[in-house]
């Protein structure tokens, strides 16, 4: 059976890289056909391609970072869990009649340590995305997450959450089932847990849907991820009645990892491979694993009371400002 090579999904700003890669391949093919040694020229072009890639990905605008965060091949919660854990056993159900595929979780071993891991799960294609509500969790999903966190607290296992959602599922049915109450309940109860909690924004962190599993002792964030109260498209539609102004809204929202680190919202930025996490997913997974283990070691030295106070103080400081008299 003939197989077709899977072509990379290119973002608009990656097209110059694709053109240069195509040029290199053409030169290499012509050289082989004519028996000409062009190894020096190839090396120079490859060095230029690497330099161009670095220039592009170190100067991305907020709207371009959003494109990277939404890349369909960006590693998902399950990708990271299955890569970094020694063992993984998924648990299902909120014990009230539902099992949301948009928010998954279970027990695992990370470097031999028992932990509970949970996070939003998007799909890889349209069919899978529809089945998983594009990573937008239902109230049952947040209740399942809280059930797993209470299980972790009972047995003294750290909680590791992975955030990747445009927001909670915005449907009438979800509202009838108590979406706001489910998220608010999680916010309150996560402040009370005794065990270490580390939350990582791995892709798109949107609104209360992200916060429903986002209260932690440490908040980590991948370099090209975004974390915001509203999507730029919705923000532009509200402020300017024009969704095409989403790039302008993205800049105003201060949604990038560097903006949020400067504002004190997150604690640590995880570097991504040049080209984004989807370009070298194993390298990105190793960076995540190292950061989780380092933070778990530090948090493990604290008492439960110290961790709860740390968590409380972290969130109380958010949004604090000082008025300067003129």
TrEMBL record:
It is an enzyme of class 2 (transferase). Residues 28-55 form a coiled coil. Its EC number is 2.1.3.15. PROSITE patterns: COA_CT_CTER. GO terms for cellular component: acetyl-CoA carboxylase complex. Residues 45-298 form the CoA carboxyltransferase C-terminal domain. It catalyses: N(6)-carboxybiotinyl-L-lysyl-[protein] + acetyl-CoA = N(6)-biotinyl-L-lysyl-[protein] + malonyl-CoA. The keyword Amino-acid biosynthesis does not apply. One of its GO terms (biological process) is fatty acid biosynthetic process. One of its GO terms (molecular function) is acetyl-CoA carboxylase activity. Keywords: ATP-binding, Coiled coil, Cytoplasm, Fatty acid biosynthesis, Fatty acid metabolism, Lipid biosynthesis, Lipid metabolism, Nucleotide-binding, Transferase. Its main location: cytoplasm. Acetyl-CoA carboxylase is a heterohexamer composed of biotin carboxyl carrier protein (AccB), biotin carboxylase (AccC) and two subunits each of ACCase subunit alpha (AccA) and ACCase subunit beta (AccD). Component of the acetyl coenzyme A carboxylase (ACC) complex. First, biotin carboxylase catalyzes the carboxylation of biotin on its carrier protein (BCCP) and then the CO(2) group is transferred by the carboxyltransferase to acetyl-CoA to form malonyl-CoA. Belongs to the AccA family. This is Acetyl-coenzyme A carboxylase carboxyl transferase subunit alpha. It comes from Chlorogloeopsis fritschii PCC 6912.
């Amino acid at each position: 059976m003939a197989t077709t090579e899977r072509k990379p999904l290119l973002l608009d700003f990656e097209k110059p890289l694709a053109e240069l890669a195509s040029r290199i391949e053409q030169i290499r093919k012509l050289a082989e056909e004519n028996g000409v040694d062009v190894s020096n020229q190839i090396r120079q072009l490859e060095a230029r391609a690497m330099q161009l890639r670095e220039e592009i990905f170190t100067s991305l605008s907020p709207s371009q970072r959003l494109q990277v965060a939404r890349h369909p091949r960006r590693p998902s919660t399950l990708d990271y869990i299955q890569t970094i854990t020694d063992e993984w056993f998924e648990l299902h159900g909120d014990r009230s009649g539902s099992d949301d595929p948009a928010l998954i979780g279970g027990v695992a071993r990370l470097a031999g340590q028992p932990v509970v891991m949970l996070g939003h799960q998007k799909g890889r294609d349209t069919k899978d995305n529809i089945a998983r509500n594009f990573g937008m969790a239902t109230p049952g999903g947040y209740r399942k997450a809280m059930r797993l966190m209470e299980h972790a607290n009972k047995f003294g296992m750290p909680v590791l959450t992975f955030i990747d959602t445009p927001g909670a599922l915005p449907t009438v049915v979800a509202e009838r089932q108590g979406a706001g109450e489910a998220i608010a309940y999680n916010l309150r109860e996560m402040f009370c847990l005794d065990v270490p909690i580390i939350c990582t924004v791995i892709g798109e962190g949107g609104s209360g849907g992200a916060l429903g599993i986002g209260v932690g002792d440490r908040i980590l964030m991948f370099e090209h991820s975004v974390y915001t109260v509203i999507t730029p498209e919705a923000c532009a539609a509200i402020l300017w009645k024009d969704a095409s102004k989403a790039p302008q809204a993205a800049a105003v929202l201060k949604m990038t990892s560097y903006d949020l680190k400067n504002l004190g919202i997150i604690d640590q930025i995880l570097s991504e491979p040049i080209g984004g996490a989807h370009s070298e997913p194993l390298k990105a997974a190793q960076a995540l694993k190292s950061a989780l283990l380092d933070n778990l070691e530090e948090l493990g030295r604290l008492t439960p009371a110290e961790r709860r106070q740390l968590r409380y103080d972290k969130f109380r400081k958010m949004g604090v400002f000082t008025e300067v008299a003129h």
